[in-house]
Amino acid sequence: MNSFLFFFGIFFRTLFQKANFALPAFCLFFILSASATEAAATYQQCIACHGEQGQGNRQLKAPVLAGQSAKYLTRQLVNFKVGLRGSHEKDTLGKQMQVLSKQLVTNKDVTSVTAYLSKLPAVKISQISSGDLKNGSRYYQGKCGACHGGQAQGNPAFNAPKLSGQHSDYLKRQMLNFSTGIRGTHSDDKLGRQMAMMAKTTSGKELDDILHFIAMQD
């Protein structure tokens, strides 16, 4: 059925484009269904690490993708493709993503799969987290909330990703990567360099309390 929808949609899209006619509603339905099917098929190569529902995999150090903004996901995939992220010699996981991202066509696969992921419902993950929630809230609001939102929900207008519902150890690893220069040092990665600067302002128990606060927002 999925293959039928895909080819049916492509057929009618091509037909009406060549005829320069507006697409009727029933054709639009099939085209949208075909696009969704194509995006889901593209995502199949990501499932082994990131899970069928984009829930990530803590053991494989793969982050949650479901519900993240398409804008953020697109930027990160493109950054991997062009070498703005994952080029540091110590970024083993980033190098793996670089290889995988280069298999995706930017204006086709990347845009379709990130739109698909952004529409997946948020998943409930099991968190391993501890800390001082009150202090975590105070530190988070003072250093992170202005961009990432009061409940760590993210803010696409500020190019700030959603942090809630993400594995705490993934977030901690990225903060370490930012603060040690493994991530966010490329001259063309303006947003990455901003985060690298902010990451250096917190560490130790303060960072653990911030991550605990974020974990409690899920």
Note down, in words, how this protein is organized.
The protein has 218 residues and is mainly α. The chain has 2 domains: 2-44, no CATH class; 51-215, Orthogonal Bundle (Cytochrome Bc1 Complex, Chain D, domain 2). The protein has 11 helices and no strands. The chain has helices spanning 2-19, 25-43, 47-50, 70-82, 92-101, 106-118, 133-143, 145-148, 168-180, 190-199, 204-215. Helix 4 (70-82) runs antiparallel to helix 6 (106-118). The longest helix has 19 residues, at 25-43. The two termini are 36 Å apart. Mean pLDDT is 86; it is low at 1-23 and 26-34.
What attributes does this structure have?
Cytochrome Bc1 Complex, Chain D, domain 2, globular, 11 helices, 218 residues, disordered N terminus, mainly alpha
Give the helix tally.
11
Mean pLDDT: 86
Shape, per Cα inertia axes = globular
Oligomer: single chain
The total count of strands amounts to 0
Instruction: Label the CATH architecture of the largest domain.
Output: Orthogonal Bundle
Rounded to the nearest angstrom, the distance between the terminal CA atoms is 36 Å
Quick structural overview:
By secondary structure, the chain is mainly alpha-helical.
Q: Helices and strands in order, then pairings?
A:
Blueprint: H1 2-19, H2 25-43, H3 47-50, H4 70-82, H5 92-101, H6 106-118, H7 133-143, H8 145-148, H9 168-180, H10 190-199, H11 204-215
Helix pairs in contact: 1-2, 2-6, 4-5, 4-6, 7-11, 9-10
